[in-house]
Structure formats: C-alpha cells, structure tokens
Amino acid sequence: MSGGERPGGAVARRRMTSAELSIWRSLVDTTTELRRLLGAQLSQDSNLSPADYQVLLALSEAEGRRMRSSVLAATIDWERSRLSHHLARMERRGLIRRDDCATDNRGAEVFLTDEGTDAFRGATLPHTRAIKRHFADALTSEQFDALDGILRSLRDHLHPEQVEAPKREGRR
Amino acid sequence: MSGGERPGGAVARRRMTSAELSIWRSLVDTTTELRRLLGAQLSQDSNLSPADYQVLLALSEAEGRRMRSSVLAATIDWERSRLSHHLARMERRGLIRRDDCATDNRGAEVFLTDEGTDAFRGATLPHTRAIKRHFADALTSEQFDALDGILRSLRDHLHPEQVEAPKREGRR
User: Fold this and answer.
1) Residue B165 lies in a domain
2) What is the CATH number of the domain that holds B72?
C-alpha cells in the first residue's frame, strides 16, 4: 500500500507524537461540531437538511441540472442505497424528479425541479452567511492559505494517483 | 449572538470569497473521507466500530474507568438516546457494564470491563498506525503547527466563553 514503509521498521522508529494525535482528534471534533451547528442552522433557516442541501448543490452544479444516480452517489460520496432512499423522500417533496432508465446499471436520471432550484437558492444565502460567521470569520487570510495547503497535502496523500504533475499540457 | 455584526451591513460588505467557501467544502470532504477510511481500517483490524472505539477511549481516559452516561454523552458529543442504544449493544458484547442509579437524572454509571479494556488496547496500536499513515505522514511539522493554530482559532471562535485569558493562576 504505502510504498517504502518497512513493516515494524520505519513505523517503530518514527512514532506519531501525542501532540499530532491530539491535533487529529481536535480536527475531527471541531469539524463535527461545525457541521452540526451549520446543519442545525440550515434546517432552521430553510426546510432543508444538510443531506438535502448536499444533493441539491451537486445537481445545481451538474450540466443540465441532472445526473445519473450512480454519478450523484459518487459525487457526494454516499452509498447508493442510502441515496436511493433519500431521493425517494426528496421526490415526494417535489425537490427532485427521477426518470428510470432500465437500460443500464447507472441508476435513474435525477433532475432538479424548479421547486428544488428555488429551495436551494433560498437556503444558500443564509447557509453561506452561517459558514462565514462560524468558520471563515475565525481565520486570518494566512490561516486560510495554510489550511488550503494542508488540505491539498492530505488529499494528495490519500490519492497519490490524482496528484497533478507540476507541468502538464492541460486539456481542461 | 456574534457581537458587532450589523445585519446586512458588515456581511454585505465583507462577503466570504468563493476560495474560502471551497476550502470549507474541502475541509468537510477530506475529514469525512479520512474518518471513513480510518473507520473501515479499524473495523478490519479489530472487532470495533469507530463508535465503539470512541466510547472505549472516553471511558479509558476517565477516572476509575467509569462515567455517568450523561457525562459520557457530553464528552463524546452524542445524543443521550443514541448513546443509550449503543451502550446496550456494547454491554451485550461484554465491553462495558452499566449500573442504574435511579436517584438522579444523570443516567447509569458506565464501566469499562476487562474485556473492553483488552479490546481497546488491542485496537489502539493498529488504529494509531493508520492515523499516522493516512494523516500524520501527509503533513510537515510546520503544517502541524499551522493546523494546531487554525483549530485553536476555530474552537475559540465557537466557544468565546472558554477562551483562556493569556495569564491565569492555573488550578490544574
């Protein structure tokens, strides 16, 4: 898996410090708390749960405001069965519409309805304000730059295959 | 709530940038992915779910390896009803034991059993190694320092009442 690591060798010599471990725990706790706070605020300001909002956001950013459910599941990183149950509830509320395509395994085509678009737009301003108030206002621009770099390092480490070469004839 | 913010005034003038918003989304996505990866690894390496591990960790750090369930719920930041269901399952597996105290509203006293202690100890080394491999190994010590400061700023902003004064005669 992780190349160059000799079992019991490098690991045993370069142990993680307890400070690093407690930063990991603080990262998990703090992001969990922020997500819950922002989720509660979202439900209060709109009629949308964080899960609804995540689905509407993905659809609103998709070409033609539609996506195959398999692609939607991958985009928001949910299990397909969880998504399918959730979409059924959102469809009953008129936020999305599904057209079954029996021809392949990529699932129904999911559309954002006008009602869903309105609900998403109505929720976005207060939600963005809440993110600003509880998250962005806490940090300096230097801290934002550092956080950006940290997240990039974590992502590159998680997905080394997706690391962009420093120079590349870019198609997109 | 947030002092000094004039409704529609300061907010409208100092809008959050789209870069800041995308850093927020990346923070949520990256920590979610890391948690899921580490949770899957934990379940594979031990017989514990991340939720089990969280409960065992809190109890193992508590004085006398016991806690009132209300305090445990606050410590790990769970709803009491969710914790109660989860503790029932852990008790059936012998990992914890509960003694009901009918005298007040703070819930049962929850004990870590010897079996729970062994399970926790057995899981900790591989779990810590996985945190090191997937998280700590991705970051330089400068990035750890920066992340520590960022998380401190976020926590202080979320809980201004808990911000420690720069100098204080420390009791603990």
Assistant:
1) no
2) 1.10.10.10
- Give chain B positions within 8 Å (CB) of A75: none
Residue B63 domain-assigned (yes or no): yes
Which tokens is B45 given?
């390496």
As given in the structure block, the two tokens for residue B31 are: 């920590």
Query: Does some domain include residue B156?
Result: no
* Cβ contact, residue pair A31, B33, below 8 Å: no
Q: How many domains does chain A have?
A: 1
The secondary element (H helix, E strand) that includes residue B61 is: helix B50-61
Alpha carbon distance A112, A91 (integer Å): 10
Which residues of B are less than 8 Å from A32 in CB distance? 77
Task: Tell me if residue A68 falls in helix, strand or coil.
Answer: strand
Q: How high is the mean pLDDT in each 10-residue block of chain B (172 residues)?
A: 41 69 93 93 93 94 94 88 94 94 78 96 94 96 97 96 63 42
Q: Which residue of A has its CA nearest to B28?
A: A31
Whole-angstrom CA distances from B57 to B52, B76, B112, B148, B153 are 9, 10, 10, 22, 25
Q: Which domain holds residue A90?
A: 50-126
Of B21, B77, B157, the CB nearest to A138: B157
- Inter-chain residue contact B24 with A136, CB threshold 8 Å: yes
Find the CB nearest B31 among A19, A28, A136: A28
pLDDT in tens, A7-59: 433 333 467 888 999 999 999 999 999 999 999 999 999 989 999 999 999 99
Q: Answer whether residue B115 is part of any domain.
A: yes
Q: pLDDT tens, B133-151?
A: 999 999 999 999 999 999 9
ipTM of predicted complex = 0.78
